[in-house]
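Changelog note: in this version the structure field was regenerated for every chain. One regenerated record is shown below for reference.
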Amino acid sequence: MLKKLNWRWLMMLAAVMMMGAAMTACGDDDDDDDNDGNTSRYIGVWADAEELYDPDYSGGVYAVELRGDGTGRDGQWYESSNEFRGDDYIWEWRVDGNLIYITESDGDVNIQPFTISDDGRSGTIGGEPYVKVK
């Protein structure tokens, strides 16, 4: 009788241990769009920093607007009026790691490195400096 009781306890212990191992394998394996999982850092208007800070440059500076719905457009940033005037041509964007993928309406994809500073206010797109202005 004692052997039979020990055998049952041993089998129950083994079953509990196997359930614990099986449960650890069931996790969230979904990857986020970028390294920190926060695509909202990219949303906004990014102006060309070299043009923006050039004292001899007048008028609007080249800028890119990235919208939260995954669309974007090129345009001009006017610092004097704190206004972005975008082109009518809309494209789609997504970030994967430190790369931004721009998909044109004809299906062409332009891939550029996109890094953002820790404070989220500046970065580089394709190696060129940009400042988040809005």
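Spot check on this record: The radius of gyration is 26 Å. Residues 36 and 120 are 12 Å apart (CA to CA).
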